[in-house]
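Next comes a concrete protein, fold included:
___
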Amino acid sequence: MARIAGVNLPNQKRLEIGLTYIYGIGQPTARKVCAELGLSPDEKIKDLTDEEVTKLREYIDGSLQVEGDLRRERTQ
């Protein structure tokens, strides 16, 4: 099970859909992330390699405001 931004992504979902489980990432953003990292949006999360999960984690943590930071900003 891949864990990105403190969220466990569901193994049976496609990557494009699984990324939407992270607060702050919708389908358009998920497609953009996949395209920029060269990953197939149709690949299942369980089929991702550790290297691909690490690339996703680093990109999302470094480039996008998600989960706790975004929730905090929205409540203020």
